[in-house]
Specification:
about 140 residues, mainly alpha, Rossmann fold
């Protein structure tokens, strides 16, 4: 969800040629699968295309290829820290003050709308942060 939302935001601002974006999981449970149908529905409802996205697992090459490594929750941060020595932030670190720290997994309680709103907020804040940091 976050990859699609972030892609949509940078497209709206005409910045597509300035970013390379990818997402990957810390586990391999869903490798090769399309996003959950609930994610597909909420993104379609908000006019966001997922393209041909398929789940991938994070690997060491990813860490060398990207300037920002963003996780959805504390468990993701711990999983990455256990495998790699890298700086990682949570998406909601970039959301307005008072936001939760972790993006909940919508699979367990079908809260795709809530998760979409959190992801959108975090992605907007992340984009603003990157634009300031990188003078874009």
């Amino acid at each position: 969800m976050a990859e699609a939302v972030f892609r949509h935001l940078i497209a709206e601002q005409g910045l597509v040629d300035q970013f390379e974006i990818a997402s990957a999981g810390t586990g391999g449970w869903h490798v090769g699968e399309a996003p959950h149908t609930g994610t597909q529905r909420i993104l379609a409802k908000n006019g966001i295309d997922i393209g041909g996205k398929r789940a991938m697992r994070l690997n060491g090459q990813d860490l060398k290829a990207y300037n920002y490594l963003i996780a959805m929750d504390a468990q993701n941060v711990a999983d990455v820290a256990d495998r790699f020595d890298v700086k990682i932030s949570r998406l909601l670190d970039f959301a307005p003050s008072g936001s939760p720290l972790d993006v909940p997994d919508p699979y367990y309680n079908n809260n795709f709308e809530e998760v979409y709103q959190l992801v959108l907020s975090g992605c907007k804040g992340l984009l603003e942060h990157i634009r300031k940091q990188e003078n874009r």
